[in-house]
Design a protein that fits this description.
The chain has 20 helices and 8 strands. The strands form 3 sheets. A 3-stranded antiparallel sheet has the order 1-2-3, with no helix packed on it. Strands 7-6-8 form a 3-stranded antiparallel sheet, with helices on one face. It has a two-stranded antiparallel ribbon with strand order 4-5. The N terminus is likely disordered.
Amino acid sequence: MSSLGNQIKAPFQRRGGASLALLVFAMVLTLSAFAEVGLARDGRLPIGLPLYGGGLAVLAVAAYFVQAKFAPYADPVLLPLAVALNGLGLAMIYRLDLDLSRDKQTALMTGKAVKDAADAPSQLMWTFVGVALFVAAVLIMRDTNRSDAPLSFSPKTAQRYTYLIGLGAIILLLLPIVPGIGQEINGAKVWINVAGFSVQPGEFAKLMLVAFFAGYLVNKRQALSLVGKKVGPINLPRARDLGPIIVIWVLCLGVLFLQKDLGTALLFFGLFVSMLYIATQRTSWVVIGVGLLAVGVFIATLLPFMGHVNQRIDIWQHPEQYFDGGCTVAGKVVPVNPETDIFKRTDDFLEQRAQQYEAAGEKAKARNTRLIAPGWYACTNELKGKYADSAQLMHGMFALGQGGVLGTGLGKGEPWKTPLSFSDFIFDSLGEELGLTGLMVILLMYLLIVQRGMKTAVEARDPYLKMFAGGVSFVLALQVFVIVGGVTKLIPLTGLTTPFLSQGGSSLMANWILIAILVRMSHDARKPAPQAIQDEGMTQIVSMR
């Protein structure tokens, strides 16, 4: 009996109280961040505190009650962690919003005007949309253990449409290269224009690819686990089983070549290799994946039309020579930074042209002319070379160094000096004002989400659901690694966004759906199994005394 008792898993209990307490702590953390921004900058509580802090609190409470009602056995940590990360990102974007800050005047005085700017009201709106999608996903995924639940579409349902979902993911990935709707921003074609909004379909394609990979690997894992030749300590798979990883490798190379986006290719190929390892538990697949990744990057460096990717790699290796502007001419880098004569001469020329436009009454042309970077203009028009600027990476590194261990404090640093400090480099912005200590807390939050997702995968009863939960957790971990590694110069810089922190609607919506999937799956994995009724199938012992 003791051995049997040890095999029986103790039922999970509802942790609504713990989840509510953690959610309150997350909101206190967020409201404190907003308050500190106002007190440090203006000496008083910010005017936007009731709108942004209160709005996020209302959304968080609504999400909690939906979870408590429809997923009471869900992991109590997932929702509070997502709210805390979203709140910290919103607070930093509010701090960086140049329309609400004195830093706008400072930026204009020092010539740091940029085309893009932080937009806190827009981020709050996308937060509302993201939480609404979280609520909708929790309600729609009635029972992830069943594929035939009425009025429900769960991950288990997706298993029946594995290849159709894979086709849909490929279509989403190809949309940015379709003429008319695709957009090229900062050298990468990963955006589409829908009703005036810029949407990044790759953020939603990653969830569909997780469903596709999970369905495919569950069906093929027995064949993929077979061992072929042994080379040293590694058992290689059979040659005939290399087809799937080669196909995914070619697909990721296509993404790299057509969209010129190294980050998306790294994310999707890394996702497939990691899920392949989960399915087969063969280290040889990881070795093969890393080798194919290295070959793919090497091929990209040899192709002349991959200039944007090669530029990113060159900036990663030699950022100093591109600082504030460098022009590649005949294989050599010519400085075109503000200290050079060619920059000053071009700057005077552009200013004279802007004044001429103003004299002619063409104010729009004058304004656009002043937005032209003199270094870029001198490189492309006078030197006939390729312009690159490592100011993003270098200023981000300077910001991290300025923050030190404890940071300058929210509202006391100068994170706006880093280009795209509210999106691609928001991690560095937080590092300047929260320091290494604050960044470790943020990374720990991501780690906890990944750990709880992996725990959900272990607890899931169905093999497909195990793969799906593991893949969803891995894709979040890989995305954080790629973006954090890029802005800290560990790997070449990519165009991925920091989940929940960066400004933008596509990433925020996709990641709230990701949290909803883990919440629903953890509920179904942790809820007690149905108890048998005593008079229907259970043997009764009757005393005859």
